[in-house]
């Protein structure tokens, strides 16, 4: 007997539109954990940061957005990472959140409330729906954790209506804010600038976050050293990158920036982030990488170590000069000194060493003068910068504040001299071609001393050989 039934389903039919599904999905859900887990002191630190900003810009109304994850391809996004200034002011990492500061400094955080089972977004929104991404904190949960008033994001338009003058961070962070608030480029830059200059001095809570980031990074460097034999057997730079990334993801939020894993001839490339080359015996590995904590503070550490535990004579020659420059640079980092002093100290050592090697045929005075700088062929980058929520922290500060100011207690800096001889550089002897060396320490300035956060890693050739050999033999 034939079945005379026909399929009556409309071509545009979706199961989630069915009445039975909608009635079923709305029932029978028990409570879930939406609590916000934050480290002690975060809410208090963020509140103090807001107070400082309000004092720096009295009478101004301010709005800052956390931002949104950029699209990776089609309907998939990159991982979300909240705007650094927003995090500094709130401690919140909720996508799409917006902070509004009133003229007298009162703060309100506007967020998207999670959709309940009776709402379509609960089950039909792949980017935000609870059935797709799991439970997320609600307004009440964020408010209790951060000790800040939280309101639905739908109320943001009325909250900013008539807000004149109104300042916004760089346009493009949040499309809704761009549509609601017309901020001039001058005002947007001024806000970024003010926050950057405040962020130059870290409070005790922030310094603890950086200490945690560096400690985790030191462990990750040790992980990489133990995996050198596997990299030589064929895993290459990719294997070492994955090794560091695993520790970063386990101990923190992930890596704080694109890791540089440069073996052999790739070591002179300042930002070798392709990390797709081989690792061979006799290579040095220039590893520039940092763990980002779950509060988004990042370390920025570099060591250049021998893949099989021993430098060649030429590699040792270059590393010893960089080591000498590093010691001179660190000695110049002290409260009250000009910011440029530690960078100048490194350049003096490097220029003098290169001249002694016969690579430069002019006087030291000419090399270091404004019309000289021939030594910069071998180190075109700077030799230090601020660290914090961004790997190159506080870049929006005014040049006269960033470069021409004095070093102050509470500053956290990366100190990173290096030398880079490209394999096709015919101005240097063949034995130096393809050698790149960098040493990068993370330091904190105190009124009476310099704290070396990265002292868990050696910086001299002998110490790095012993360190590498130790981890090679203890996998």
TrEMBL record:
The keyword 4Fe-4S does not apply. Residues 44-178 form the Aminopeptidase P N-terminal domain. This is Xaa-Pro aminopeptidase. Belongs to the peptidase M24B family. Its EC number is 3.4.11.9. Keywords: Aminopeptidase, Hydrolase, Manganese, Metal-binding, Protease. GO terms for molecular function: manganese ion binding; metalloaminopeptidase activity. Coiled coil: none annotated. It catalyses: Release of any N-terminal amino acid, including proline, that is linked to proline, even from a dipeptide or tripeptide. It is an enzyme of class 3 (hydrolase). InterPro entries: Aminopep_P_N, Creatin/AminoP/Spt16_N, Creatinase/aminopeptidase-like, Pept_M24, X-Pro_dipept-like. GO terms for cellular component: cytosol. Pfam families: AMP_N, Peptidase_M24. Its cofactor is Mn(2+). GO terms for biological process: proteolysis.
